[in-house]
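Subject: for your reference before the review

Hello V.,

The reviewers asked for a structural picture of the protein, and I figured it would be easier to keep everything in one thread rather than splitting it across files. Below is the amino acid sequence we used in the manuscript, unchanged from the supplementary table.
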Amino acid sequence: MQPLDQSPPAAAGFVITVDGARLTARPGQTIAAVLLAAGQRATRRTRIGGRPRGVFCGIGMCFDCLVVCNGEPGVRACLRPVAPDDVIETDAERSPGDVVEPDADRLSGGVVSPDAGPFRTGERA
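And here is what came back from the structure prediction:
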């Protein structure tokens, strides 16, 4: 009598393209899972400083793993399952010299100084 093989059957893989490189993926994997399995931890870089970012929370709450999938920007890699022939673009290889500094008004919501606006230090609403 032969022992019962209880391992799951190997799912047939398919190919996706990530930043021009062809990677093998399996059905049910997320984009993040494919990237991590290939050894790529970063999916993008911060606008200020160019620091690498990748999967942080793994449940779609932090938006650190954003990629472009089939031309659609802002896709959370930790949530999107891959499909055959997907084309994924990351911003992980952008050099810090390419970083575009956003304007201060957009970052601060128009408030340049911590003492500006209706609620100054020590005041109550």
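For the response letter, the relevant points are probably these. Residues 44 and 93 are 8 Å apart (CA to CA). Confidence is low (pLDDT under 50) at residues 99-125.

Happy to draft the paragraph if you're swamped.

O.
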